[in-house]
Design a protein that fits this description.
alpha+beta, Uridine Diphospho-n-acetylenolpyruvylglucosamine Reductase, domain 2, Vanillyl-alcohol Oxidase, Chain A, domain 3, eight-stranded antiparallel β-sheet, 13 helices, 21 strands, binds flavin-adenine dinucleotide
């Protein structure tokens, strides 16, 4: 086991901490003894995944665990479409091994760098009205709880499973994850630049019709380049960079053509981002999505001309994870960003106020201003989550300063 001194910093550089102890255990037993010792010292215990959250969900001045010694695929069951992995397995590491067994992750988001335990802990998602977040695919986890005991939480224990499916590390340290996966599928990606009216006007029809319908709306000429979306040189101001994915069969040959790619799902999904933004992402009920989008465009154009990052628009299917943005409802996902070094806080607060009027839930890994009262109001099972958390962690070993006001 390596014990390292120093400071932890997230991917984009807006969060850091200096833990009293930084440990990289190589087994579940080591995790258990480290957690038990830290709990005896009344230290806060947190785990760092790949550090791709913008919020202080990892920070601790106590024990910080790096679980990269617990990565990798442990078993694949093709008949049951199940895969068992170590918690630090990255999304990208699922692709080829699952494909070789005729399987694939049911859906993916924009990048593949996240560790699976980090991704499920924040209900990371892709796009698609009938596709839930990563959390919705979790069927079993092993968790080292505050006393250093191991809890195995599976489908026979639905309440605790739905709490563990998106828990921000508050139930304990995840040491194993079992996911339900999909039969392998191939995708055709179509990318086009559309007017707002084309992308927004037919939103419902397109979201219902396609496996994945999403777009980036660009408020100004500068916007596209900020996310590497710049196309053929024409101005994209007030236009939408639209992405549509549909499943295709074996008869459609692979293609790397820029606007019409075809290939295995795990090859088509990922984008590349530079760490040049801080992001906020909120989720509104699907039925209210178009109105929320129109209000956001108006806000950004009329009152926030300095907000040049694109607005990303996606959908997510409903799921059962108590802390999920999509618990019990389909959602439209709206995300906006600010440039590091610029005071974007007033802008993001305006967005928070506006989307609050649409009963918005938040992405736990992206900037948000959720209060405890809003949590209890907007997440129907928040109290159930808090009760399970208190039962598993009565001394609040896994609560840091960011999480305590919401979940203590
Ligand atoms: C460029 C970029 C693109 C992104 N794209 C998307 C996207 O398309 N869709 C989307 O939904 N999100 C997206 N995100 C957000 C990202 O998916 C989440 O913030 C995710 O949680 C990051 O995973 P991670 O491995 O980096 O976890 P971290 O950020 O390191 O940690 C997240 C949480 O998980 C906890 N955790 C990690 N491992 C364990 C464990 N073993 N046991 C218990 N708790 C654990 C941490 O303590 C923390 O609370 C993106 C972020 C970036 C920076």
């Amino acid at each position: 086991m390596a014990t390292l001194a120093g400071t932890w910093t997230n991917w984009v550089g807006n969060q850091s901490c200096a833990p009293a102890q930084f440990a990289a255990p190589a087994s579940e037993d080591e995790v258990a003894s480290l957690v038990a010792e830290a709990a005896d010292r009344r230290w806060t215990v947190r785990v760092a995944g790949a550090g791709h959250s913008f919020t202080p969900v990892v920070a601790t001045d106590g024990l910080l665990l790096d679980l990269r010694g617990l990565g990798g695929i442990r078993s694949i069951d093709g008949g049951r479409r199940r895969v068992v992995v170590g918690p630090a397995t990255t999304i990208g590491e699922f692709g080829e091994p699952l494909w070789a067994e005729g399987l694939a992750l049911a859906n993916q988001g924009d990048i593949v760098a996240q560790q699976i335990a980090g991704a499920i802990s924040t209900a990371t998602h892709g796009s698609g009205l009938r596709l839930g977040s990563f959390s919705s695919t979790v069927r079993r986890v092993r968790v080292v709880t505050a006393g250093g005991d191991v809890a195995e939480i599976g489908e026979s224990d639905a309440g605790r499973l739905h709490a563990a499916q998106a828990a921000l590390g508050m139930l304990g340290v995840i040491t194993e994850v079992e996911l339900e996966v999909a039969t392998a599928y191939r995708l055709r990606e179509r990318v086009d630049d559309w007017s707002w009216d084309e992308a927004w006007g037919r939103f419902d029809e397109l979201a219902q019709q396609h496996r994945h319908y999403s777009f980036f709306w660009m408020p100004s000429d500068d916007s596209a380049a900020l996310y590497g979306l710049a196309g053929d040189g024409a101005s994209l101001a007030d236009r939408c960079h639209v992405k549509i994915y549909d499943e295709v069969d074996e008869s459609t040959p692979d293609s790397a053509e820029r606007h019409r790619r075809v290939g295995p799902a795990h090859v088509i999904y990922p984008m590349v981002y530079e760490p040049n933004f801080h992001e906020l992402e909120y989720f509104v009920p699907y039925e209210q999505g178009r109105n929320a989008l129109a209000a956001m465009r108006e806000l950004m154009l009329a009152r926030l001309p300095a907000s040049t990052f694109p607005m990303e628009v996606r959908t997510v299917g409903r799921d059962d994870a108590f802390l999920s943005h999509s618990y019990g409802r389909e959602t439209v996902v709206i995300s906006v960003s600010g440039m590091p070094g610029i005071d974007y806080d007033p802008y993001l607060r305006d967005v928070d106020r506006l989307l609050g009027e649409f009963d918005a839930r938040v992405h736990w890994g992206k900037l948000h201003y959720l209060t405890r009262a809003q949590l209890l109001d907007r997440y129907p099972r928040a109290n159930d989550f808090i009760a399970i958390r208190r039962a598993l962690d009565p001394a609040d070993t896994f609560l840091n300063a960011h999480l305590a006001p919401l979940f203590s």
